[in-house]
Amino acid sequence: MKRRYQLALALALVPLATAGLLVQQYSAGEEEPSGELLRVMEWNICGAAQNCQNRGATGDGTSVVRLAEQVEARHPDLLGVNEICRSQFEALQRLVSIRGWRMEGSYAQMHDNVRSCGSDGSYGLAIFSREPLTAPPKYRAFASTSEEYVAQGRAEQVRRGMLCAPTTVKYRRVMLCGAHAGTEPEQLAEMQGWFADPALFPADLPVVFAGDLNQQPNEASLAGLYSHTRGEKDTYEPRGRFIEADEGDRSWFRQGAAGGVRCDAPGVTRCRNGAPTADDGRKIDYIFATEAHFTGPEGRTEDFPESDHVLYEGTFRFRE
To answer: What is the pTM of this model?
Structure first.
């Protein structure tokens, strides 16, 4: 049963919903952001997993075609994709161009032992930008990993990590990053260290970061990414640089069901929480943007049958 409790809750919160999508509401005294809009999409497409229908394919009825359709409809500035074969990455890049919303992409391989992904078996993650990338992409693999993928008679270490590339949005420079972390909290600690390094990510550089982190918002590991809201598992005050697209969705402030922090205090306008993004009811997919450069986050999710994760769209406003 695909997240039926989420649907029931959404129906109960009809005043906060428009066309099935939860939308940020602004209270009296809150000023609606007015800067230029940034639109980001993130989807774990379940490109080759046995529990999904794609099995490495790229034709009709697959998440590749579905995502190309959604890119055409939504016109994102930036896009992150998880669990995608190299062949699917190449097909997606062709399809969005054919459909009139060309995006430049970069692919990073996590392992090459997935039979469904074709002759090279390559499986990984990708990032796309509407504007050209302005320098070569950089993939940083996590040092903290013990994960292996066993198939085709051999075991291979899974090289999860983070892929980043500089680009521009609305004539402003932006660093775009995508990641697929595992369940080891040390991997998110590595990301925190990278983002805190001014040699890698200068304080004046806007950063947009999207991915499947396999960690819920109330985990202590997320305190190194979020800039706000201490959770009961945290051992220190949040010290991250980021706001998250769905943090202003009040319908989840008092819901711990997605693994979020409960925000019960009156007057709270943001929370380390949000709608579930995986079929098992957890929020594990994120769209982050640096708080110093962006404001007005809004998150929307939509469920499609081709994947066990929702398609996640986030918007932000550039600070003026």
So the answer is: 0.89
